[in-house]
Amino acid sequence: MPILLDRRAFLATTAGFIALHPFSARAQAGQAHLRIMETTDIHVHIYPYDYYADRPVDTVGLARTATLINGIRAESANSILLDNGDFLQGNPMGDYIAYERGMSEGDAHPMITAMNALGFEASVLGNHEFNYGLPFLMNSVAGAHFPVVCANVARETGATPREDKTLVPPYVILERMLTDGAGKSHRIRIGIIGFVPPQIMTWDRRHLEGNVTARDIVETARAWVPQMREEGADIVIALSHSGIGEAEHIDGQENASIPLAGVDGIDAVLTGHHHRVFPGPDYADTPGVDAEAGTIMGKPAVMAGYWGSHMGLIDLMLERDSNGWRIASHTSEARPIYRREEDRSITPLVESDETILASVEEEHEATLEYVRRAVGETDAPLHSYFALVADDPSVQIVSNAQTWYIAQMMQGTEHEGLPVLSAAAPFKAGGRGGPEYYTEVAPGPIAIKNVADLYLYPNTVRAVRITGAQVKEWLERSAGMFNQITPGETDQVLLNPDFPSYNFDVIDGVEYQIDLSQPARYDKSGAVVAPDAHRIVNLTFNGAPIDPAQEFIVATNNYRAGGGGNFPGANPSTVVFEGPDTNRDVIVRYIVEQGTVSPSADANWTFAPMEGTTVLFDTGPAAEAYMDAVDGVSIEAAGDGPDGFARYRIRL
């Protein structure tokens, strides 16, 4: 006899390998399964392409995320797609549009074009939307086929947030039709409200001061959410371009998603800004957060990584009664576009959506031309062949750019007037990367893609406030790069092969010597192993011995300032500035502004002299062309090293 299938069984058997979500399987009449999809911090990464390295990659791209989104839509009766901000800036395509092509009234921004093609239904302004100025921002979002909201940025402020004249609408209420478990359609009103860190007033002061004002996120939410409910919103979703930070509300809080989730009337929170993944271990043991269940203050929440690496997904089981819809249950997850294997290789989990690629193909090709073209010039070679044994031009330009940027960011703050130092390390310095793994840019034009050679990682800029004593300890930690050298002996091995080059910080703005006769005070992990040892000698600032009590601002990156490498003085408690920009972006902006850079190393650090002593180190064979131009150290060729390296000698 024939087998009769009900609707749910039919869907389950025709979905192939797609497993029907339990909410869809269980929904009855008057119950509906709503799937909320999130992207966040796309930063103009539409194509799966690294414009800095000038090659395709499998770890980024809205075109890849689009395939996940289309899969959810295909298997769902009810879904909505929302973006959580930071879409206009963050890679060379964004810079190409801003600095090269421009955004006049009526122009189409490729990011908006791609978002229109994918069918986004709302977005919020992220902090990076303000990087290119208000006219650029407003001309860009004018082309959106979806509402862009932000409740806490106002052109004119009133006595309360509800009296503000906001830059864009504070919220929107979307009317949609839901299909319940019995196949019947019902109307639902979905409220979408958005927030951005008020720190935009510092980060983009030159664009915003005198033009807009930013309010506290939680204060603003408490004012607007009741009005959304009064206007008939059945559920309210907060687009929080704000990270998951302190549980307690602090006025002016940058990462306010936890107290925001606690605001009455908010049903779900889409987070971002932190470039992390939630649910997941990144926020394990965070008060107010269930990192496994994906809830903040008991409410469903999600954070979808960055650059299109993930799609955030909140599933709601909604029930309808005489008062409208309410959330009966929920789940959260972040679905990746790739998997990192045990051998660190990358396996893509989806292919690109060709419609999204085609929508911005012209701008992609123009961006490739842009990154391959010079943005400035250098009047000295940029190379890292001797970055571990002498002050180095490739590190120097990074330090120069960081100092330039942080000095601007400190203006108008309580830290203005403090000396600004800069800590930077060589990244491409041979080692396991091989004898060709070095930076080398000839004098002349610098293309944007060359910046990848100068700064490999997508770190963001940070600044810490520390004392002269902590500056010295920071340098002691860096000096673990070297083996202890016996005075008077010849051809001893200089470099500790177990010490990573990215932990060899050079601090510009002070002068110092490294006494190799001393043992390393810190080991490769940052633990004190020789408490009586002091390799850093003759440490001076402005020509005088450094005052241990004097305070300094040190420009660095989020990895170091967050405690990466266990450097004394570099930890979250000393952070006074968390920049919205990557170190790469800062270098590009610095080169553009300078026109021609002169990154010649200033030899602010050297080895302390040791009579009759020589040491050996290995570097790339191409170093020979630059050997005679290294200041502060005497280098000579010493034959071949292993595995294709060249060996050199230093007379201390």
Structural class: alpha/beta
Q: What proportion strand?
A: 25-35%
Anisotropy-based shape: elongated
- The CATH architecture of the largest domain is 4-Layer Sandwich
Count of extended strands: 39
What's the total helix number?
17
Integer average pLDDT: 92
Largest sheet: 8 strands, mixed
In helices, the fraction of residues equals: 10-25%
Q: Going by CATH, what is the homologous superfamily of the largest domain? A: Metallo-dependent phosphatases
Task: Tell me the domain tally.
Answer: 2
- The CATH topology annotation of the largest domain reads as Purple Acid Phosphatase, chain A, domain 2
Extract low-pLDDT stretches. 1-18
Report the radius of gyration as a whole number of Å.
27 Å
Question: What is the CATH class of the largest domain?
Answer: Alpha Beta
Q: Please give the alpha-carbon distance between the first and last residues.
A: 94 Å
Describe this structure in words.
This protein is an alpha/beta fold and 652 residues long. Helix 4 (92-101) packs across helix 12 and helix 13 (393-410) crosses helix 17. Strands 9, 10, 12, 13, 14, 15, 16 and 17 form an 8-stranded mixed β-sheet that branches. It is elongated and about 90 Å long. Helix content is 23%, strand content 28%. The chain has 2 domains: 21-368, Purple Acid Phosphatase, chain A, domain 2, CATH 3.60.21; 374-651, 5'-nucleotidase,  domain 2 (Alpha-Beta Complex), CATH 3.90.780.10. Residues 1-18 have low confidence and may be disordered. The longest helix has 18 residues, at 393-410.
